[in-house]
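Morning!

As promised:
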Amino acid sequence: MKLEFLLIMAFGGAFFTYLVGKISARARNFFAVVISCGLTAAIAFLYGAGLEKTFYLGFLDLPLLLRLNMLSWFFAVTIAGVGALSIIFSLSYIRGKERTDFYYLMMMLVNAGMLGIVLSGDLVSFYIFWEIMSWSAFLLISYNRGPALAAGMKYIIMSVVGSVGMLIGILSLYASYETLVISELSVHIASASPGYVLFLLLLFFGAFGIKNAVWPFHTWLPPAHSEAPSPFSAVLSGILVRMGMYGFLIIFYGIVGLKLFMGLGKGIYSFHHILAWIGAINIVIPTFIAMLQNDSKRLLAWHGVGQGGYMVLGTVLGTNLGLAGGTFHIVNHTSYIALLFLVVGAVEYRTRGVRDLNSLGGLIKKMPVTFIGALIGACGLIGVPLTNGFVSKWLIYKTLILGGHPLLAFAALIGTWGTILSLYKFLHNMFLGQLPEKYKNIEEAPFSMQFPIIVFSMVIILFGILPGIPLKVINAIGTSFGFESLNVVIWGIASETGTLNTINIFAAIIGACIIVWLIARPGKKAPGVDQYDSYAAGAAVPADRYHYTVDFYNPLYRMINPYLRDFVDEFYMKLAAWTRRLCNGVRRVYAGDVGYYAIYIILFLALLIFVQVTWSIW
Amino acid sequence: MVNPVLLIAVPLGLSFAIPLFGFVSKRIEKYIPVAGLIFNLVLCFLLIPRVLQQPIIVFIGGFRPPFCINLVAGPVGILFSTLIALVGLLVSIYALKYIKEGAKQLYHILYLLLLTGATGVVLTGDIFNLFVFYEILCISSYALVAYLGDRAGIESAVKYLIQGAVGSSLILVGVGLLYALFGTLNMADIARNINSVSAMSVFVPLVLLITGLGVEAAIFPLNAWLPDAHSSAPSSISAILSGIAIKVGIYAVARVIFTIFGASSILHFLVFLGLVTLLVGEVSAFSQNNIKRMLAYSSIGQIGLIVFALGMGFSQGVTGGLFQLISHALSKALLFLAVGYMIYRAGSMDISNLEGMGKRMPLTSLAFTIGAFSLVGLPPFIGFPSKFLIIMAALSTQQVLFTVLIAVVLLGTVIEGAYFFRVVQVLYFKGEHTALQKQEAPVLALVPIFILIILIITAGVYPRPVTGILNSASSELLNRIEYIRSVLG
């Protein structure tokens, strides 16, 4: 299988689907699903292949390369899988909305762009695909109109700023080494001075940090995630944002290399240590901001920011355990955040666009499959044992403790605490408590929505019980970066400093369940209670009068609210307002009076002559 | 025998023949520019392979230079005349349907004259002849800006005329000084002797020419006419003014600085000037509510980028600058053509009135989006390789100064992105419009729009044919010894 075919299939498929959509909507849906599933299968089939070849020479005589290694396979299969599932989810979600052809085109184009990014073997094609991904994501974020416009603008402006930095970095590499092929750069850069490496790393950190929504570049993410159509939010939060993590891995370990990267600066002032602290900040603040949200998608979006912190924290410390934890966390995060966004999408679909957590509730009986999905997703996000989130978090904690970073480990733990609180609110306010009267006749989500939810739930459990499957791939990625190999077995990681055995945990939990069941069995059967059979202070509460979910963590809010303002966002908004004023001011140079304009010309001439006569510099 | 002189003679003759054709049939008039420009385009394509091997020097009247007016069809000249013929042709097709009222006959005459002037400027090898063609270009554009005959059009045409006249007189004085110094008007001959007189006496004509030509080239602070003129002209003329006229000004400035004066010491100033022009243009465009004024200011910004790149003064930078010039000509022409019918349908130039155009005019909106993305420099459109080359050139100097400067330039790009993305959002996503009828632009307008889209994408994906010509063009600009030798023998 040639890699070009994959990209042709991805890009060509997108436009083909669009054109088919002009003829028949059913055929379009069919092709969209078939092409995206076919891509997933094709990529999965390429497991273990190591390919690298030049596919195009026509662009300014720079060789454009495609290459496939463990790292790119790992990301590619995630991208294709999430893309396919979100397109299946879209089938009912987007039906009947306007511009559906455009929607499918952009969804598939975003996925194709991301595939291109991870399959690129040089930085030019990397950049080209990166930009294609960025602008198609912009169009999709703006799709919902209304507040989505501002969200889209925020996203694209920050994204352009990041790309600008990346372009300068890329071309500065070219100016120094006359090549942009990643594998060649990693050889050349060994001779670079630390100052230059730091300059490069800062540029790329900006570019990828913006995409990865690392604090203080995170501000575009919450509005963009909450305003985008839900299936795209799943892609956006699940994998598009994590292209930034891919970029980090490529630049830190793929190009600069482990030794040079760890050697920048000393002690607590070393580059990777500062990054680790940024990661820690990135865990704590957004997670608690998430708790204050009343919009279900915004709540998840803030977790998208927060979870990125774990990935950064794991990967930058330069140990094999940390890298495995951070990288594993990427795919785990993809599975559960995408699942949760799809859950919100399903609820949104049935309730006609309600995302406000205070006006939902009690949907558990009406949408059981969706609820199970939400529960598993929430457990994964929190890191409950037997879900994949547990394994990656365990690896990250372990790294922090072994490496002697108690404060960082503490930050990571606090983050988990905030996650539990906010996700409990998420689950409770949507699915538990009283069912509002108006949702009495609500139905379970259609099968095309249930299917992706079920698949993601199964992935979460599967990787939680048998983490060895992905960890084997991740270990191969680590060794390709020059890390020591981990002793990966199917049930986890064996090592002398502490073994992780998920099978034992699984057995223990099953055993505990059996014991509880055995003890509870002889007792009296609990009577079933209706959802509306609620009491408060001994008196029955009339149905639909009282909503338990409003002001869920009120006392806690009052305590932490003043500390959790998003100062960074306020700063950016001020900067934008200031720029606007500046622009308006400068515009007044063109005053409108032709007399001034003629004087400008004469003054310009006079100035030139004056400068020359006085200083004769020309 | 294909002769470059036909590139000027045929459209010039045809433009004055338009009234004669008018006697035969009023309906034939508007096809004359199309025919003339097709001829020019074909001729250019025929000339390109020959010119790339060896510049063609045409001696008018049979005398050898410096005693005659001569044409120099080198890579630069042929590059520009191809661009002029191409964009001119596409816009003239657009105008077939777009220009419906007013003095149609005069429009077509002036239009063809404008392009004749432009072609003459880029092909001539004589500084006074350059001035003459330059005046043909300017005067016909003054008249065309006022074509609609409304108050805004006439006012801005008069403003344009006044500033243009100031600029032209400066050029004339500069040319006169050169003649006084060297006794010749042949550019190659002046270039050969430029070092024989004192630096100061050469400097005065240099700045006179830069300032005078800079007015048409829209370099800050000489460009105040541009926003008014570009926004009140009919859209087809705006496309030509933005796409061609100011580029010819840039050509003239570059020719004067690089070839005639060889003034490499002033190049740093040019870089600075380009940077200021870029920032002022982008920043002013940012707060516009009038779509055409926004595009006009964005042209100023793009000119700044071109000047910046040319000012770097080494082959990669100049190539990047010329590439940016082409990419801007195509993209901006596309934008103005797309906007032309949008304004016509919306009945207003306010950006807020363009809501829902994505539904009403899907193809035109798509064209606008592609043009905007291309100007911002997003792949896979032509603006990407051109910006890429400029940044590559700036960083290849390995100087901290240029790294900082290019960062500032890219900051301008961010602002540019901001206002273009905003308009794209307005076209597609702003407001609720359910009951909109599809009112696409007429086919004759869509044909040039589609050709431009195809060119923009093809050159963005496969820039090699363009860069091939650009490389020889930049070496012609930078290698003045070679230029002098090829003209004077």
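The longest helix of chain B spans residues 151-182.

Hope this helps with the figure draft.
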